[in-house]
Amino acid sequence: MTDSSAPAAIPTRTLTLNVRKQPLVATSWVAPIVLLDGNRFQLGWGPQILTIPADRPVHVQCEMPFIYTYGRAIAVLQPNQLPELEYSPPSMNFFPGEIGAPGTTKTRGTWLLWSMLGFLGLVVFGSIILSAVSIALG
After folding, report:
1. Residue 132 pLDDT exceeds 90
2. CATH code of the domain containing 45
3. Which residue among 3, 72, 83, 118 has its CA within the 20 to 30 Å range from the CA of 10?
4. CA-to-CA distance for 126 and 60, rounded, in angstroms?
């Protein structure tokens, strides 16, 4: 005799979510989070293994929690889709993140970060040169 009150087993599958860590980014010490159908999970950097339902679409949302959340990227993983995704957080917190198939995402805002660092370097280097010239002439 079977117990009809026991819940049916939900078929599951494994989602591999590769979270790309960006070098030299100011908020790379902030660990991203993922929301799977609204359920929040803390992630680390690198490949993450998560269990998801196999019989229905799964809403995957990644974001970076800081003072406010930023870098939000959303994907819907279909039952027949390969369960591998990659999340690339942005270099700066006012750019969106990207989520997609492995190898297809890119880091947004890197050009602005490097431009700002280059400008800061020129200002510091220029002030050192101007100081040295004024000391030599003065």
Report:
1. no
2. 2.60.40
3. 72
4. 47
User: What is the per-residue pLDDT for 25?
Assistant: 57
Q: 85 has which bridge partners?
A: 17
Place of tokens 């494994």: 14
**Ordered DSSP codes for 18-30:** EEPPPTT-TTTTS
Establish if 2 belongs to a structural domain: no
What are 90-121's pLDDT values in tens digits? Answer: 887 888 899 999 989 888 877 777 777 788 88
| CA gap 75, 84 in Å, rounded | 11
d(CA 32, CA 16): 15
Q: What is the DSSP letter of 91?
A: S
What is this structure's pTM? 0.74
**What's the pLDDT tens digit per position in 79-90?**
988 889 999 888
5, part of any domain: no
E strand intervals along the chain: 12-19, 33-36, 39-42, 46-53, 58-65, 69-77, 84-88, 98-100
